[in-house]
Amino acid sequence: MATALATPEAIRRAAEILRSGGLVAFPTETVYGLGADARSADACAKIFAVKRRPTFDPLIVHVESEPALAGLCDVRDARARKLAAAFWPGPLTLVLPKTGAIADIVTSGLSTVAVRVPAHPVARALLAESKLPIAAPSANPFGYISPTAAEHVQSQLGRDVELVLDGGPCTVGVESTIVDLSSELPTLLRPGGIAVERIEAVVGELARAGPATTPKAPGQLPSHYAPRTRLVLVPAFGAEVRDGERAGLLAFRPPPKELRARCAAVEVLSEAGDLTEAAARLFAALHRLDAEQLDVIYAERVPPEGLGAAILDRLQRAAAARGP
Q1: Any idea what the Cα angle at residue 212 is, between residues 296 and 175, rounded to 5°?
Q2: Torsion angle of alpha carbons 275, 280, 284, 289, nearest 10°?
Q3: Who has the most CB within 10 Å: 85, 122, 153, 216?
């Protein structure tokens, strides 16, 4: 695996790799993505192989702009146009009826496709240079902590990716919010980088989808986003560290000194209790804790409003990976 700073020359090289059917990891504002030409079944099959991802879990297709969706999906829905105008480019994914050239493996054979327009300048430059729709899930082994820095991709995917574009740390830090517009009632499939309250201010109340064994979009499986270390979700300041236990603490705010002293490693998501800052730091903090050879990670619940809903979603699915 080669890693290169995301210079214009490196972006041109990445675009050539994509056009030739290869894989490129690149930054978005949410997490680093593992990209391939969304029109090529062979190229996208490599994504599933490298990530060890089940083929029933569909991918998100990234495009440079809303007009670039022409021929890929049906964007006549007035709700889609309103949400695109309000939040694109940005961390919002829309599930729409599929109409065109996207490979069936990308959509897991479904009649819908998940699409978004990313805001990160490197992602946008790569889309413009390649002139491709790029299918890109997170650039990590399936079910593991999402990568928010180039070094996370390097350490997790080994030599399986031809090029990693290093665009620095991701600013949002959790995956996109996913809204299904393929039926009459708009439905939240996954909370993410745009607070649900902001979306509902544009299109009205969203229905909520629970965990799915046959998902319409990424992030719906009951277990996901998990460190290798067992993770236990606890109330704020509620971790009960056992004698002799090598425990890590993922705290929303700075913990009491007594609790900190009982933990082998502590990560604080926001000194000021800011949910936007906490979301941006979440996955990097989990990566650091997972490297500490701990017996358990205690993760504190955060307030469920705004981006707190996305953080809680990730922590609940991470905790489900290992059970109690």
Answers
A1: 65
A2: 0
A3: 153
pLDDT in 10s for each residue of the chain, 324 residues: 799 999 999 999 999 999 999 999 999 999 999 999 999 999 999 999 999 999 999 999 999 999 999 999 998 899 999 999 999 999 999 999 998 889 999 999 999 999 999 999 999 999 999 999 999 999 999 999 999 999 999 999 978 999 999 999 999 999 999 999 998 899 999 999 999 999 999 999 999 987 666 788 787 777 778 899 999 999 999 999 999 999 999 999 999 999 999 999 999 999 999 999 999 999 999 999 999 999 999 999 999 999 999 999 999 999 987 554
For residue 105, the one-letter residue type is I
User: Is the CA virtual torsion 207, 208, 214, 220 positive or negative?
Assistant: positive
190 DSSP β-pair partners: 178
> Are residues 297 and 229 in contact, defined by beta-carbon separation less than 8 angstroms?
yes
* Per-residue burial over 152-185, b = 16 or more CB atoms within 10 Å of its CB, e = otherwise: bbbebbeebbbbbbbbebbbbbbbbbbbbbbeee
